Amino acid sequence: MASDTLATTPRSDAEISGLDALEIAGQEKATTRASRIWAATWPKVAALALAIGLWQVVVWAGWKPSYSLPGPVTVGEELLRQIRGPQLWDGLVTTLRRAAVGYVFSVAVGLLVGLAVARFRVLRAAIGSMITALQTMPSIAWFPLAILLFELSEKAIFFVVVLGAAPSIANGVITGVDYVPPLLVRAGRNLGARGLNLYRYVVAPAALPAIVAGLKQGWAFSWRSLMAGELIVVGISQTSLGAQLTYSRELSDAPWLLSTMIVILVVGLLVDAAFGAADKAIRRRWGVLDQAGN
Amino acid sequence: MTSTTTTPRSATGQVALRGVTKVYGRGEHAVLALDGVSLDVVPGEFVCLVGASGCGKSTLLNLVAGLDRASGGQIDVGEGVNPGLMFQESALFPWLTVEGNVEVPLKLRGLSRAARRERVAELLRTVHLADFGRKRPHELSGGMRQRVALARTLALDTPVLLMDEPFGALDAMTRDILHDELERIWSERKLTVLFVTHNVREAARLADRIILLSSRPGRIIYSTEVDVPRPRRIDSPEIAAIAAEVTDRLRTEVGRHGQ
């Protein structure tokens, strides 16, 4: 019976902290920031150099005439010229604005639909598999319908971008909520988190890694849909990156075409890297990052 | 004890079960997990529930914690009391630091930021983890994680602690330390503890009273007071003698299912 406080402490504090220190020893990593950055960077630089070298070799081999496949130097010069001029930046601004508007809207739709489907069993039975079906639909196949509905307009592009991205994001949310460990939910409920608080304190943070994965995949889909849209829906007054690709092909300006492609690739890579960094930061906090830091 | 501790004195910590029954499933597939369990735990008592697999130990704790609803009978934990529950796994939130985890119940109860900081520091001192507040759960050992979980549960300021094999996954040395720690905190804070284990020695080491549950369905078949003065040692002859007797009863019960 808990009649009185125990007179003696059977175990010293030193013994407890000594055991703690022994058990968590050897977890600190002794690598510097510079060496980590170098280790992550050099394989990428080497691969890039190799790709450019291969390209140059193909050009030197004379497989195609230089007006259809120019060498890296010619394209590099064109890219520098484009960077100094207004045309590329105008196109980039137009394209990124469309990407941002389409993506933000997709995120809103995806999160809402995903949460609703994860929460309500009837909705899941009704549209759960439809979301996956939508995801498998190649976005370019939506364009004929989009053009019939909205004509050759920004709206047609927007429509296809959202249809491309929102299902991936919704699926990420559904997966995330489904795989929240039941034990954490029970713990949360016991700690007093009910209703909305349970979502705020337990479900949402536990589902975050899967949601970020869905957001990343959604971005990839929306970027592809946008490029397809800009190639098809040309001539609506603005010179987007996709429109510049079309024009450069019509003008047989291969250096312009290739330098535009490089810009599109770089934008895709940068955004992907941002998602990768977010994903990695989350996994590090969750403690699911392996020792090698991958 | 420091003055910041605010275990409510109004809440008594009494737990009363009257003919509690729990059935899982329906019709032919229905399984009777608990069959008419009646139990009175007085405030400040440390009760260990012992039983083989399938005796409904965990089910019983879930019912008392209010995470599940009984099929029959009554459970009374006192007006406004929300018993704290601990599991074999720490169930800490991996996205929060140690401090953040302990803070969750305080946030949910609406304490001010200053009050929360003070309480978190006090609770971490109580479990000897004052220097680890900024760590994340995955950076700690299993025993340390369980102490964080204990601090988080204590942050509920509840007089009733329900523990579901909380030390089952720990090595013997760590478990010994945690027994001492739990005993000290239980005694300091005058808690009522309902502790589930399949380790009979652990039960004899900790309990004021050991209750043996039968398997399929779970019924109380034996109960004994542990009249050994504290502090106790798990390897003392008195504890061993009590453990031996409970083990005998447990073997008889398990053997009943072999025929």
Textual characterization of the structure:
- The complex is a heterodimer of chains A (294) and B (259).
- Chain A is mainly alpha-helical.
- In chain A, 76% of the residues lie in helices and 0% in strands.
- Chain A has one domain (73-285): MetI-like fold, CATH 1.10.3720.10.
- Chain A contains eleven helices and no strands.
- Chain A is flat.
- Residues 1-9 and 290-294 of chain A have low confidence and may be disordered.
- Chain B is of the alpha/beta class.
- In chain B, 36% of the residues lie in helices and 22% in strands.
- Chain B has helices at residues 57-65, 98-108, 113-126, 142-154, 172-189, 200-206, 237-256; strands at 15-24, 31-41, 46-51, 72-76, 84-86, 160-164, 192-197, 209-213, 220-225.
- In chain B, the strands form two sheets. A six-stranded mixed sheet of chain B has the order 5-6-7-3-8-9, with helices on both faces. In chain B, strands 2-1-4 form a three-stranded antiparallel sheet, with helices on one face.
- Mean pLDDT of chain B is 89; it is low at 1-10.
- Classes of the chains: A mainly alpha (294), B alpha/beta (259).
- At the A-B interface, α1, α8, α9 and α11 of A face α2, α4 and α5 of B.
Order of helices and strands of chain B: EEEHEEHHHEHEHEEH
Radius of gyration of chain B: 19 Å
- Label the structural class of chain B: alpha/beta
| Strand order, sheet with most strands of chain B | 5-6-7-3-8-9
Beta strands of chain A, count: 0
Determine the CATH superfamily of chain A: MetI-like
Please mark out the parts of chain A with pLDDT under 50 across 5 or more consecutive residues, or reply none: 1-9, 290-294
Percent helix of chain A, as a range, is over 70%
Mean pLDDT across the residues of chain B is 89
Rg of chain A is 26 Å
Bulk shape of chain A: flat
* CATH topology value of the largest domain in chain B: Rossmann fold
Query: For the residues shown, what is the average pLDDT of chain A?
Result: 86
Number of H/I helices of chain A: 11
CATH architecture of the largest domain in chain B: 3-Layer(aba) Sandwich
Number of strands of chain B: 9
What kind of sheet is the major sheet of chain B? 6 strands, mixed
